Amino acid sequence: LGYDRIIDRSNVFECQELWIKAMSNAATKEDFRDKLEGAQVVMGLPTFVFWEQVLEAFPDAKVILTTRDEVAWYRSVLEAKHQLDSEAPAAPLRSGQVLRYVECWMMPSYNKLCDVLRFSWASALGLSFLGNGIMNQHVTCGMFRKHNMYVQQRVPKEKLLVMDVREGWAPLCKFLDIDRPVEPFPAVHDVPYFSLSKAQEHKRRKGLQEGEGQVLQQAMVQELRRGLLAVSVAVLIFLTILMIPLLRETPLVFIMILTTLAAHLALSIWLAVKNIVRRL
């Protein structure tokens, strides 16, 4: 459609301070304007949670509510959750409370990114699916219907397009007053949530290009790597500090033994972290 300034889930990391503030009820209109000013399109995760604040900050914006068959939507949500649980780094949706505390302490930047994901999914689908919870089709589809009805009640009709994606380009281009593209309307539900392992093969077979899902995945991997490397450096520094008083008071033979053990432990930790990072 010619739009090149788009904020979607691939921008979660660079906009995460705004989303964190919004999650804690601290974001103002000015915060949304400062971060989203200049964007032509704002969509996807976590915008679908904070769409009212975005609209308050940009009252002249148009709202496009995409709808589809709710059973097909539910199946696509199940597939997306499966990919997040099985292919996303550290499976953020399945993290228990203890693991989240560890994640927050050891990898705070990665934890913030995952908190935005968890908050968005929980706000849209309910808390029951987090961890090992099971998504109930009737409850989930009910929330889908409630969201659609609420948007239609809140947004002025002249600013709202309720669009079934099966309708293709026609209603969208008419609403935006732009020319209809030559390319066929994209089947976005066929795009993997993350371009990893099985999803990569799926993408190759479907002939799909790398998109926002892979950008988000790369951001998560980068933050997790930084956290793991920071932890390994902190452990090495801690071991070094512990060794200093021992070096002053311990006989030479014990110093050699302790130094060897410390070096072996440090090397083991480093190799373990390096192996984890490689797998990411």
TrEMBL record:
Keyword annotations from UniProtKB, A to Z: Membrane, Transmembrane, Transmembrane helix
Keyword Hydrolase assigned: no
Keyword Lipid biosynthesis attributed: no
TM ranges: 227-247, 253-273
Organism: Alexandrium catenella (Red tide dinoflagellate)
Short name of one Pfam family: Sulfotransfer_4
InterPro entries attached to this UniProt entry: P-loop_NTPase, Sulfotransfer_4
Record protein name field: Uncharacterized protein
